[in-house]
Amino acid sequence: MKKSLMALSSLLMLGGVASAQKVAFEEYTLDNGLHVILHQDKSAPVVITSVMYHVGSKDENPERTGFAHFFEHLLFEGTKNIGRGDWFKIVTANGGNNNANTTEDRTYYYEVFPSNNLQLALWMESERLMHPVINQIGVDTQNEVVKEEKRLRVDNQPYGSLIAAVKQNIYKVHPYRWAPIGSMEHLDAATLAEFQAFNKKFYIPNNAVLVVAGDFDPAQAKTWIKDYFGQIAKGTDIQRQKFEEAPITQTIKATYQDPNIQIPMMVATYRTPSMKTRDARVLDMISSILSDGKSSRLYKKMVDDKKMALQVGAFNYSQEDYGMYILYGLPMGKNTTEDLLKQVDEEIVKLQTELISEKDFQKLQNKFDNQYVNANASVEGIAENLATFYLLYGDVNLINTEIDMYHSITREEIRDVAKKYLNPNQRLLLDYVPAKDKAQN
C-alpha cells in the first residue's frame, strides 16, 4: 500500500509539473512571410533570439552536397554593416553567446544575451538575412574550417562514419542518402556564384521563423522586429521536389570499412515514417524499452547478464520525410556481431508478440513525462522547440500537446508498430568493420 501511495504521489507530482510547464506563446507573420513567435519568461534576465531556416542537406544538389552545413559557418563571416570577423566579438563584448547547427531538414542560428540587448540581437539576425557578405575570401576561409571539422568528427573519429554509411545504403533516391557534412570535393568544386545562388534561394524571410524567448517587453519587441525585418524583401517561393523511396522488401546487406576502429559493430537499420507521424512517437517508446538506461532490455540482457556486448543501443533517427530506426552493438570477447544480432532479434520478436507489462508501461510513461519537462526546462530549449514545431511539424502548440500523444499510445500500439516496421526483410544489415589496409573505404 505504501508503494502504491508513493507511486501515486510521484505521478501527481509529474502531472503537476507538466501542467505548470505549459508554454505560452504568441505568433504572427510579417508581410514578407517571416513567421514570428514570442515567448515571454521573466524568470531570468536573459533573452534568446533565434532564426530557423527551412533548409538542410536534403535541399542540396547531389553534385554539391554540404552546402547547408557550409552556410552554417559562412553566415558568421560578416555582413554589410558587421565587419569580417566581428560577429563573435560583438556578441562577446555584450555579454552574450551564440551558435548554429544544421540537420538534414533545417539550419538554426541563435544568440543568448542579457535581456537589455534584444535590439542588438534582432539587428544582427536581420543583418545576416538582409546583408550577408558572401565573397571568395569567406568561402575559402570556411572551406578550411569545414574540412577540419570533418577530419575531427568523421574521418578520425571511431565509428564517426556510421550514420553516413547507413544513409548511403538505406536511401536510394532521397537526398537523405548523404550526410549534412557533405563532400569536400563538392565544396572545392563549387563556384562563388553557386554559393550566392544558394543563399538567394533559401535564406529568405518566407523560408524562416524568428523566435524571441525570455525576459523582454512584447510590444517593444514587435516594434523592433518590424523595423529590422519588415523591410526585407520576400523571396521567391521555394518549389520542393518530393522524393519517395520504394518499400524495403528484402534484407539489404552492405559493408563499410572504418580505419579508426578495432572492434566491428553490429548495425541493423529499418526505414521508418516521418517524425510527424504517430508511429514515429511509438518507435521513440520502443527505443526507450530496448535501450534507455541500464534497466532496459538490451542493456540488461546483453551487457549485464550475458556479458556479450561492450555496448548496445537502439534509437529512432527522426527526420521530416523519413526516419531510420538504428540498432547497434559492440561484441565482447569471442562473441560476434551475428551473435549480437540474434539476441537483438529475440527481443524484437518479444515486442511483436507480447504486450509489455503494466509496470513497464507505467515506467515508460514516467520517462516520457520527465523528458517533456526537461525539454522545456530552459528558455533556450523552449526557443528551439517553438521553432522546430512550427517549421517542421506545422503546429507550434505541439510544444504543449505532443506529450498528450505519447500518453495516448497503448501497449497494443507498441506491439503493432514493432510488427509493422521491425522485420528482417525490411532492414539494412551493415557489416561495419575495421579497415584491413587502414584506408578509408
In CATH terms, the superfamily of the largest domain is: Metalloenzyme, LuxS/M16 peptidase-like
Main sheet: strands, sense, barrel: 6 strands, mixed
Shape: globular
The domain count comes to: 2
CATH secondary-structure class of the largest domain = Alpha Beta
H/E element sequence: HEEEHHEEHHHHHEHEEHHEEHHHHHE
User: Could you give the distance between the termini?
Assistant: 60 Å
Low-confidence parts lasting 5 or more residues at pLDDT below 50?
A: 1-20
User: Structural class from helices and strands?
Assistant: alpha+beta
The radius of gyration is 23 Å
Give the tally of β-strands: 11
Domain Peptidase M16 C-terminal: 190-367
GO biological process, one term: proteolysis
Protein name: Peptidase M16
Keywords: Hydrolase, Metalloprotease, Protease, Signal, Zinc
Tell me what you see in this structure.
The protein has helices at residues 2-20, 67-74, 87-93, 118-130, 136-155, 162-170, 184-189, 192-202, 218-229, 278-291, 297-305, 337-353, 358-375, 379-393, 398-408, 411-421, and strands spanning 26-29, 35-40, 46-53, 97-102, 107-114, 208-214, 252-258, 265-273, 309-317, 322-331, 427-434. The chain is α+β, with helices and mostly antiparallel strands. The protein has two domains: 24-229, Metalloenzyme, LuxS/M16 peptidase-like (Cytochrome Bc1 Complex, Chain A, domain 1); 252-434, Metalloenzyme, LuxS/M16 peptidase-like (Cytochrome Bc1 Complex, Chain A, domain 1), CATH 3.30.830. The strands form two sheets. The protein has a six-stranded mixed sheet with strand order 1-2-6-3-5-4, sandwiched between helices. A five-stranded mixed sheet has the order 7-11-8-10-9, with helices on both faces. A hairpin with a 4-residue loop joins strand 9 (309-317) and strand 10 (322-331). Mean pLDDT is 93; it is low at 1-20. Keywords: Hydrolase, Metalloprotease, Protease, Signal, Zinc.
